[in-house]
Specification:
26 strands; TIM Barrel; Immunoglobulin-like; about 550 residues; alpha/beta; 2 domains; 8-stranded parallel beta barrel; about 20% strand; 6-stranded antiparallel beta sheet
């Protein structure tokens, strides 16, 4: 990766390439862009290999030709596939603010047998070389194009970063040097040390992220880079990085440099950090610092491509962290508040359980916490994911309820690819987490009327959420329990929502949220109504009403 030698300017020029207006010589961010709020964002999470195959010419690379178990090999999905759906408006139609996809750095070339049959690193979490993209996922030109096209639609790009471990050892992939990784003991999670200074599973070498010892580049990387003709460039960049930062040439800082290069070169907006609790919290603080520095360098070099003044966003995956803990994660012998170490938001592993509660119990509880103990930060709520073996809706029978509870809850919302289209979470012949990682069901979306109706439901709520940060970041207030109606307010943004109301004509109480005579729009049925005596009458065949002030 070529590092542009640029000074960080104290003042950045901000410009929206596709949705800005010039006023008296200044750049004015559009109203649509100005309402974006990370803490209310809708994040679409996808497995790069399973979402959409946009370039079939790169389906088989690095001689990965061994037969694998069901859904444990590469299926062909790539960055070009994401771009195709971006161009088609799929994400915008769903109200997506951020696209997060699994790691695309070069994966191990060999396969392993995890007890479930031969498995390749299709999921992206088995890095072989952090400095290169895996060619089955695409090129750096593809990544740049994806970022620019996403930004043109007001959508951010979030990469997935792994610092904790390398990929497994195979016949094609040697173990990293002993001053870089440990291969034992395995974690038992009883204490802080037995959670951080250990390997997650057998044959997943753990990076010595706690070590400050100076280490040389691994021989296998040196040989690889020389064969690829980029050794001198990579070494020169490392020299410049360590000279600028003053960090010791310890394993964690090499990886931090390599991961932040993608920010500096392509302008990605955030990272989802993998296996956070298995790495010292101070490592993440350093990572956030370098992410911010790289983001500023990119902004300075690309003033016409900057879409907002937001800083770099860091989302943490601390397995089993939940909103009930509010801030501190308890290791048993030590508590850590990861928000104090660079994280803006944490994945909330509790949401799928809370979603079984009533609407009011769920919404009011989350609003109280997020506007109290966690004010200024957020959590990312999810119902299904790539490695959670107990999905909220494994049989895909509650898609309408899932959309309402996920997209209308306070906090950030993570749509797992196919949540919106009932993509199966059980696959004949698949074992374990492979069931959760099937190919996106594009054929069903194009041909199945029930799936299309489901998708439309998610789209309506998703767009409403995108247009109103009050939903994710605002204060929740129940208006009336009968014909359950509630409001959300965030600064000047106000909405009133009614759920499980009757089909046909229904009278919705808007309380004191909207003044008498205000013209509102029901975004679900797309009709105008007028506030009279603190109420509006809506006539539709739907059981949900989404009220907003008409623009």
């Amino acid at each position: 990766m070529k590092i542009k030698q640029l000074l960080i300017l104290s003042i950045s020029v901000f410009f929206m390439a596709c949705s800005c207006d010039k006023k008296e010589g200044q750049i004015v961010i559009s109203s649509q862009e100005s309402i974006f709020n990370w803490n209310a964002a809708t994040v679409y999470f996808l497995l790069t290999d399973r979402f959409n195959n946009g370039d079939t010419s790169n389906d088989v690379v690095y001689n990965r030709t061994a037969e694998t178990s069901k859904l444990r090999g590469f299926e062909g999905g790539d960055i070009q596939g994401i771009i195709q759906k971006l161009d088609a408006g799929y994400f915008s139609d769903l109200g997506v603010d951020v696209i997060w996809f699994t790691p695309v750095v070069e994966q191990i070339h060999g396969f392993v047998d995890e007890g479930t049959g031969n498995t390749y690193g299709y999921h992206g979490y088995w890095a072989k070389d952090w400095t290169a993209l895996d060619t089955t996922f695409g090129t750096e030109a593809d990544l740049s194009l994806l970022v620019s096209k996403a930004h043109a639609q007001g959508i951010r790009i979030m990469l997935d970063g792994v610092i904790n471990h390398t990929g497994p050892v195979t016949e094609k992939d040697p173990v990293w040097p002993s001053d870089w990784v440990r291969t034992e003991p395995q974690c038992n999670y009883q204490t802080y040390e037995t959670t951080t200074a250990c390997t997650l599973v057998k044959n997943l070498p753990d990076v010595l992220t706690e070590s400050d010892a100076v280490v040389e580049l691994p021989k296998h990387l040196v040989e690889k880079w020389k064969q690829e003709g980029r050794y001198d460039q990579e070494v020169a960049e490392l020299d410049a990085f360590f000279k600028r930062t003053g960090y010791p040439r310890a394993p964690r800082y090499y990886i931090i440099k390599w991961l932040t290069d993608y920010i500096r070169e392509h302008g990605v907006d955030g990272y989802r950090a993998d296996t956070v609790k298995h790495v010292s919290e101070t490592v993440w603080a350093d990572f956030k610092t370098e992410c911010e520095t790289s983001f500023q360098i990119w902004k300075t070099a690309n003033p016409t491509k900057v879409i907002s003044e937001d800083g770099f966003y860091l989302l943490g995956e601390v397995y089993n962290f939940n909103i009930s803990q509010a801030t501190a994660f308890d290791f048993g012998d030590k508590k850590v508040n990861y928000y104090d170490f660079g994280f803006d938001s944490m994945i909330n592993f509790e949401f799928k359980y809370n979603a079984k509660d009533s609407y009011e119990a769920l919404f009011s509880r989350y609003s109280t916490i997020l506007n109290g103990e966690l004010k200024g930060n957020s959590v990312l709520n999810y119902l299904n994911s790539h490695d959670d073996g107990s999905p909220f809706d494994q049989d895909r029978t509650n898609g309408f309820e899932s959309a309402i509870k996920l997209l209308l809850s306070p906090g950030m919302a993570q749509i797992y690819y196919g949540d919106e289209s009932n993509r199966p979470l059980k696959v004949d012949g698949a074992v374990g987490d492979a069931n959760l990682r099937a190919n996106m069901n594009w054929e069903a979306i194009s041909s199945d009327k029930e799936i299309q109706e489901m998708l439309m439901h998610w789209q309506k709520i998703g767009k409403f959420r995108k247009n109103h940060p009050a939903i994710g970041a605002g204060v929740h207030q129940q208006v009336i329990s009968e014909n359950y109606t509630f409001s959300r307010v965030f600064k000047e943004d106000k909405v009133v929502i009614a759920l499980d109301v009757a089909k046909g004509i229904k009278t919705i109480d808007v309380g004191d949220v909207f003044i008498e005579g205000t013209i509102l729009n029901d975004a679900y049925s797309n009709q105008e109504v007028k506030v009279e005596n603190g109420k509006v009458d809506v006539e539709s065949e739907f059981t949900i009403v989404l009220l907003e002030k008409k623009r």
